[in-house]
Every structure is written in C-alpha cells, then in structure tokens.
Amino acid sequence: MATNDAPDTPEKRYRIGDRTPDGRYPVTVDGKLIGHIHRWHGDWHARVLGQVEESQHEDRDKAAAHLDTVTQSGAALPQTEQAGDTAPEGIVPWLHPRMAPTRRNILSAGICLGRLDEIAWSPKHGYPGSDNPFEMEDLICGWVGNRWWSHLRGRNSDPTPRPAWRHEGCTVPFEEQAARVAELVGKRPTQCPCETGHPTDREAVTGLLDEADRARKAGDIEALRGHLTRLLGPCPAAPTRAAVMRDIVKPPQKG
Prior knowledge:
Distance between the termini: 39 Å
Number of helices: 7
Number of strands: 8
Low-confidence stretches: 76-88
Strand order of the largest sheet: 1-2-3-4-5
C-alpha cells in the first residue's frame, strides 16, 4: 500500500521534467532541482536530491508534491548532483539493480534477452521486468528508446511483438523489416561457442541456477556474478538458452 503521500495543495509549486534515459523524472521548484521521481511496478517513488531513501506514492503528482513538502520543511539540498543520485549498477549488466537475482528473475531475464537477440533489439541496461520501461536500440535502424518486454514478447502463445511495426519513425519500411532482421540475425548456433561456456541444455541451466541460488543466499557476490554471467551474458546461442529457460518455467501439463 502506498505511503508517505503529501497532502493535496491548491497550487503546484513544482514542475516535473522530461523522463531521463534511466527512467527518472527531475522535479524542480523555481528552476531548482529538488529531487527525482520514477515509476516502478505501478507505484511512484520519490527521492530528495542527495539522499538515498525513497518514499512510495500512488501517482506522480503525489510523489512530486512529497518532494516539495519535504524540501520546504528544511531538508538540506546539495548545490550539485551527487554521486549517489546516479542510477545504481546491477550485480551484472543484464539484470536491473531493482531486480533481485532470484531464480524466477534470472529465468525471466534470460528468456527476454534471448528473444531480443532473435528480433534484433539490443538492451541498453539490465532487464527491468515485463511492465517497466526498457531502453533498447533497434539494430536495424539505430533508433534508441523505451519499449516494454510485455509488448515485445507477444501474448497468448503468439510470440509476435505488438504493435507489429517496430517503433514510431523507423527508417526501415514496414514491409522490409522482417527481411532486415533475418539478414542481421542470421542462423544462430544451438551450442555455445564462447570461452565463458554459456549453458544451452536443461541440466546445465538448472545446475547453474542452483549454484546462483546458493551463492545469493550465502552473500558470495563474486560467485553469483560469475554464474549470472553464464546464465545471462551475450552468446550467439542465447535463443537456444532462452528456449530451455522457457521450458523450465512452463507450467506442468494437466492430466
């Protein structure tokens, strides 16, 4: 349940700026930056500039109003953006910092990254979940912007992304896009050719998932990083690895 909501005010003193590449919106009062807000899985979060703790709110205006209220109460603001206000780094580049490296999240990320590889999209940051903005590059035209995995993965067992066109303003005509993707992606191997040794069969994937789970629970970050690199890192056989992961999460057949 959302908490820390600021009371409604008759007049807004704050201004919410445009979304930055890392998913945050700057909030200013009289042209002065006072903090940032961002949306995560349905709720809005607010953080005063220079502070670490965040508050959670029902909508973006309540989040921004909270920043205004807190800073009016006398919270000290630094004169410039501090290092702590940059987006945190994940344990590996392929899993968003807010996504705990649990078994389910690792599988979801691996399935997503393998499919993006098949349809010629290159992620610009770690997997953020299916319904959060995901900055990526369209490899057939070079466009960079936000897409949502819940749209790109298709639905009802149909893997066709929606909408069918790749993005607004794509310089490659719609009728040529499928051929360009096929040409760019090419035929991928079903076995990993990398020195890292990415898993491409069920036994290897489940074994690494078990190892990653043990390392996470033990707090062994270096071991966990190594396991996640093999489970999520770039590989020509990433689509095969993703297919294995899809099979692992597939619900058991009834009867």
